[in-house]
Write a structure and sequence with these properties.
Layout (H helix, E strand, L loop, with lengths): L15 H11 L8 E4 H7 L2 E5 L10 H10 L3 H6 L1 E4 L3 H12 L4 E5 L5 H9 L3 E4 L4 H15 L2 E2 L6 H17 L5 E5 L4 H13 L4 E7 L4 H7 L21 H10 L2 E5 L1 H15 L9 H8 L1 H4 L3 E5 L7 H14 L3 E9 L4 H11 L3 E8 L9 E9 L3 H13 L5 E2 L2
Parallel strand pairs: 2-10, 3-4, 3-6, 4-5, 7-8, 7-10, 8-9
Antiparallel strand pairs: 1-2, 11-13, 11-14, 12-13
Cofactor: pyridoxal 5'-phosphate
Protein name: Threonine dehydratase
Family: Belongs to the serine/threonine dehydratase family.
Amino acid sequence: MTGNIKTPLEKLPVTLRDVEAAAATLAGFVKRTNFDHSRTLSDITGAEIWLKFENLQFTATFKERGALNRLSALSADQRRQGVIAASAGNHAQGVAYHAARLEIPSTIYVPVGTPTVKIENTRRHGATVIEGGVTLEEAASLAKAYGASRGLTYIHPYDDPLIIAGQGTIALEILSSVPDLDVLIVPIGGGGLISGMAVAAKTLKPGIEVVGVQAALYPSMYNVIKAQTLPMRGDTLAEGIAVKAPGAITSEIVRALVDDIVLVTEQDVEHALSLLLNIEKSVTEGAGAAGLAAVLADPDRFRGRKLGLVLSGGNIDPRLLSGVLTRQLAREGRLSRLRFDIVDRPGQLAAVVAVLSNAGANIVEVSHQRIFTDLPAKDVVLEVLIESRDRAHLASIIKALKTAGIQVEVLG
């Protein structure tokens, strides 16, 4: 893909005028989130990083922009009948919240396995939530059939000009704050967010580069635009962009306006999510961290450039977040599990603990196993979970143990 616009902007299904009209509709009802410079992330990546905190919307997701714009266009009869949507969680919350505010009954289908936090938040906004279908596509099919039988208006999560225009208001806010950006880096699921943002950005500043990011496990738009057939499978941390079939409207706009699409691994996303929490003190879900993940995965591409990243959502299950942070600590050598095969006699555990303590390790957990082991009856397995400052510190701890004649195996 190149930076050349392949279809005239005025002939696309969504125009800057549509985005500006959406901005007027949203004014006073959707938060104009901060777009702030991150000095520390800029130092780490070698690029100038600016972050759009859409995870700080009332529903913790940008999705309420498009949802409100679409709901506001309903006729009086459609409002009385009610609406239905299918969503992995964020579109659901946007629809549910603004439907309740506009006194429109709403029903939401979510795929089985959607994070509990997203389901509960959707119910809290007053929607009827139905779990059905393994994938978002299956949930959408069920939702359409259910809605058709009850006269409900289906609110598409991304392939709708009004939805796209609503999401595009983010680019208006970004460029009004920092007009000299070089690149916008935007997560892609079905494509609604990047389509709307690309329309606004490329119209206002034709030379700006727009880069989309997808999880490597779900490269749907990547496949469409680059004529690839990469498989889509598995559970991704970025479930908010785990879409198997991007929209027809969004694909047309992406093909015309988006300069490139890159893929990020699960480890890239975990690393980015951890940095955003530890450095920016901001909770993001996997999809929300995708933009930073792309920069971390290919720093040479973006070095020295001024980047705008969208933290698209912050709805992540606390237990999952805890696991991600713990895994990242292990990767950085700050949390390690050590195994010792020691003789079962008094003083052996104390000797190991003394060396660890003197080396500056913090002992988090100790497991002393005599029964479920294939060691001789007079030996035991000792496993110790320790905290260290970094990998260099961990290496010095291992060296101290071996110097003391204590054999150790680092399990992770």
